[in-house]
Amino acid sequence: MNQPISSRTSRLSGFYQKSVAERTAFLAQWADLTPDQIAALHCGLSITQADKMIENVVGCYGLPLGIGANFVINGREMLIPMVVEEPSVVAAVSFAAKLARSGGGFRTGSTRSIMIAQVQILGAPDIEQAGAHILAAKPELLAAANTSPTIAAHGGGPVDIEVHVLPVTRTAPMLIVHLLFDVLDAMGANAVNTAAEAIAPHLERLSGGRVLLRILSNLTDQRRAWAEVTIPAREFSSIEAAGEEVIADIAHANAFAVADPYRATTHNKGILNGIDAVALATGNDWRAIEAGAHAYAARDGQYRALTEWKVIADKALTADKTEDDQPARATALYGRLELPLAVGIVGGATRTHPTAQVALKILGVQSARELSEIMAAVGLAQNLAAIRALATEGIQRGHMALHARQVATAAGAQGGDVDRIAAQLVSEGQIRVERARELLEKK
Predict the structure, then answer these.
(1) 366: which of 102, 135, 258, 389 is 20 to 30 A away, CA to CA?
(2) Cβ–Cβ under 8 Å, residues 372 and 386
(3) Residue-level pLDDT at 328
(4) Which residues of 98-121 are buried (b: 16+ CB within 10 A; e: fewer)?
């Protein structure tokens, strides 16, 4: 059986040094995994299962599944399953989560799981009047849109109708109707698309126009999650620099990404390194998440960083003194990430993919909102790791050290030779396949 929650810790010192078997055994105890669930971690998706998920199946494509360690989210110790091929992502996020522990970990929140379906109306004789008729018929439209008995039985369903006029487009004026739908623990694409189809005939009658597109929007700005963290400056101190200097430079680096879209694009890609990895592990639509995040980053007309990092007074470390005897205030780094996150824990690949089911069990989430909040915390941690590295030693040192193992493997190294050759490549500063082959030949 798994350990009592009160005695568990996600602080896994030296976890990367253990064998796969040892890591799996720990995880099995942590999440109380059955033999079949352990097998799903190791074997993934069968060809028979894959054939039922998409068309024209000819095989399965594997990616590594790792564990992001050291997370505390809303006071809860958590291990984070992550599927990603890029070296350093899991190590970096685990390091950032360790830093965050010193400030109590990550605090998160989210909105309701409101998805938006859009219905495009063309040729309405009077767009303004058509919009008024549609809003007046809101009760009728919401009743027609209540097409999911399962969601309705759990308290979800259509909640509102909005009308948006596009008086000038490249082709013709358009009336766009937004159907707002609470999908609860589903990602919700199928539910809202079905509801949009259901109200289309009613909208044609009310508007006198013709319905063309009826489909969800992946800019789910009414379905957002956020995470924040506060880390004392002392946690960033090193031989090379004081912690106060490091967090000031992190704030400068974030300001660069807020002001400049070229930097913001790479900055936000780093956030999504973590979020996408959790989405893949749990069977969620990472492409929809990416689209919504990037659109949200440009919501004011310029593409910007999704995060906020700033230096604040560390109230926990600032002593209560008289005004005349007040010492210099201790400082801390405050970070926040908020973005649209439409994810589900029921339906789709979360139901059919055995490894996704195991990943959700490891997380222990009870709702889609909780999963979205965890993903926001992971995205914030991933960004912290990258921006701290950039503001100190640079991104390449740690990244290339981990990349050396891939280079050694590509050169033909196996077993213990992989780490031996990777270490030699790093010490020489020559992380190249040709050099790895030379080292193999000298063995």
Answers:
(1) 102
(2) no
(3) 52
(4) bbbbebebbbbebbebbbbbbbbb
| Rounded CA separation 384/390 (Å) | 10
Which CATH number characterizes residue 384's domain?
3.90.770.10
Look up the CATH number of the domain holding residue 139. Answer: 3.30.70.420
All residue ranges of the chain with pLDDT < 50 are 1-2, 321-322, 324, 326, 395
Positions marked catalytic: 86, 269, 285, 399
Assess whether 174 and 209 both reside in one domain: yes
From 216, 232, 251, the end of a domain falls on 216
pLDDT digits (tens, 9 = 90+) for 168-190: 999 999 999 999 999 999 999 99
pLDDT at residue 322, rounded to an integer = 44
| Tokens linked to 187 | 């990602």
Name the β-bridge partners of 308.
336
Beta strands in 98-223 (DSSP E): 107-110, 114-122, 157-166, 174-182, 210-216
| 344 in the same domain as 289 | yes
Query: Do 241 and 385 lie in a common domain?
Result: yes
Work out the angle between the directed axes of helices 416-428 and 396-410 (0-180°, nearest 10).
Answer: 130
Instruction: Give which of 272, 332, 279, 278 is closest to 307, Cα–Cα.
Output: 272
Q: How many domains does the chain have?
A: 3
Q: Where in 217-329 does DSSP place strands (E)?
A: 224-232, 307-313
Please count the helices (runs of H) and the strands (runs of E) in the chain. Answer: 17, 10
Measured between alpha carbons, how far is 288 from 348 in angstroms, rounded to an integer?
A: 14
Domain that holds residue 132: 114-216
Which pLDDT score is estimated for 326?
Answer: 47
